[in-house]
Design a protein that fits this description.
The protein is mainly α and 124 residues long. The chain has helices spanning 30-38, 49-57, 70-74, 76-87, 90-94, 100-123; strands at residues 20-22, 42-44. It holds the Pfam family DDE_Tnp_1_2.
């Protein structure tokens, strides 16, 4: 998924490397963290309890505890709410579309519907 990321700025071409990536505990694996560290991307992913317990069990050989920005992690809620709004449309939630192009078109259509609804709500 990181290959598709484009962070637009005020001028120039979009960046392909975001400053940080927020994820839930499912993405706290050593491989994911190593990939982000290699690309110099800040990982905002909390550590699973069993991973922390295994690390502590190893003592000094277990490495340092994972540090993540709790305030930045809280902003992940905004993205989660948008994903839930997208999934409210049955075609996206169930992935009935056969081709990636038609699925992406459905995502664009649903996103524009959400945007228009929010736009009309703020103009009144």
């Amino acid at each position: 998924m990181l290959k598709k990321v484009r962070v637009r700025g005020p001028v120039g071409r979009p960046r392909t490397r975001p400053d940080a990536v927020a994820g839930d505990k499912a993405y706290s694996s050593r491989g994911n963290r190593a990939h982000l560290r290699k690309r110099r991307i800040k990982a905002v992913v909390p550590e699973k309890k069993d991973q922390a317990a295994n690390r502590k069990k190893k003592g000094s050989r277990g490495g340092r505890p994972v540090i993540h920005d709790a305030d930045l992690y809280k902003e992940r809620n905004t993205v989660e709410r948008l994903i839930n709004k997208l999934k409210a449309w049955r075609g996206i939630a169930t992935r009935y579309d056969k081709t990636p192009d038609s699925y992406l078109a459905g995502l664009h259509l649903r996103a524009s519907m959400i945007w228009l609804k929010d736009l009309t709500r703020t103009t009144w």
